[in-house]
Amino acid sequence: MIRPFGYFVHHQGRGHAERCAAILNALPPERPVTIFCARDDIFPPLPPQVELVVIPSLFEPTGLEARGLDAVPTPDTLHCAPLGWPGIRHAMAVIAGWFDRADPALMICDVSAEIAQLARICSVPHVKVLQHGDRSDPGHRAAYDGAAGLLAAFDAALAQPEWDGAMRAKTCFAGGLGVDTRVPERELARQRIGVGAEEEVILVLSGGGGGGFAQAPLGVGARSRPGARWITIGPVVRDWHATEPANIEHRGWVDNAADHVAAADLVIASTGNTTCQQILAAARPWLAIPEWRYFDEQHRKAAALAAAGVACVRPHLPSSAQSWTAALAETRNQHRPAAQRAMIADSPAQDAADWLEALAARLWPVELDCSPTPDSAGAHS
């Protein structure tokens, strides 16, 4: 009997679920997996050996929470652990009960420092998905230091400088993991999105994990370069005072983001994981604008991208025509397409799956038979 893998998937956006599905579809078909997630409608097709267990959200209240307990401080070792939440209690009970019944080989956490620590407390080795950000706090350190391995959905060249040799040695870096990084041919992509072959296209891309860019600064940018066609995909925050010119259009959510990226002459986007991998694979000039995330995740990722020379970074959208002109010129002049393409592995999902299998084999070299023997079960004289 092969020990199963457990897999916790955070349900904000779709990147965590897509990463999970990519790995599970690359695992051997005989490896059973149980996913724990607050949603079951965000996953691509999963292989038949996978069970998906829906658990309550760990951070969205239902109205059944006890009042008056928030005065009890949260210790530094935890991030989101409010008291009196029956949903959190039930979710943890479901996972801990599965640990006891299934005796898993690994628990993969994408992402929750609390569930990573729960696995360790329950004597289950865990693999923590590694993200950018200021994560030197005791909660993250406990999750990382106590992990049997770390999994990073980006290239090793994007590692943060404070990650030491021991941390990197137990990390599987898999640039492009969970993202379809196949790049459409530029002319065909332009035909599909209705753009002329000779038009200059500036694409503004907002992913599903945030609220999107503000309308007003985009209007300033479009006016600063009137000869270009500005197209936005994803959410845009409306500003009553925005004075948009005719050369910008908002397409909202689209099913062919890859075509838009491939068709663009320059991309303006935040630094979410899926967005990063798509732009790096397409090797387009990229003005990266990090959005707010917990632990400054996108800002630290933007710093790593800038250090690797694969994106031009600004802390926020330019606020004047002059600053837009300078940012767009710098983005073009510093463009390094070969360096961008090098960030994407040839087979990241298979690399990650093989690494997980090898890790499990090292941790469990012999399958233990814990059933009682006749001597131990019988009476003693």
Spatial strand arrangement across the major sheet: 3-2-1-4-5-6-7
Quaternary status of these chains?
single chain
Rg value: 23 Å
- What is the strand tally? 15
H-E order: EHEEHEHEHEHEHEEHEEEHEHEHEHHHH
Structural class: alpha/beta
How far is it from the N-terminal to the C-terminal residue, by CA? Answer: 35 Å
Query: How much of the sequence is in beta strands?
Result: 15-25%
Please mark out the parts with pLDDT under 50 across 5 or more consecutive residues, or reply none.
370-374, 376-381
Mean pLDDT: 95
Task: Estimate the helix proportion, in percent.
Answer: 25-40%
Largest sheet: 7 strands, parallel
User: How large is the count of helical segments?
Assistant: 14
What features would you describe in this structure?
It contains 14 helices and 15 strands. The longest helix has 17 residues, at 86-102. The protein is 35% helix and 15% strand. The model is unreliable at 370-374 and 376-381 (pLDDT under 50). The chain has 381 residues and is an alpha/beta fold. The strands form three sheets. Strands 3-2-1-4-5-6-7 form a seven-stranded parallel beta sheet. Strands 12-10-8-13-14-15 form a six-stranded parallel beta sheet, sandwiched between helices.
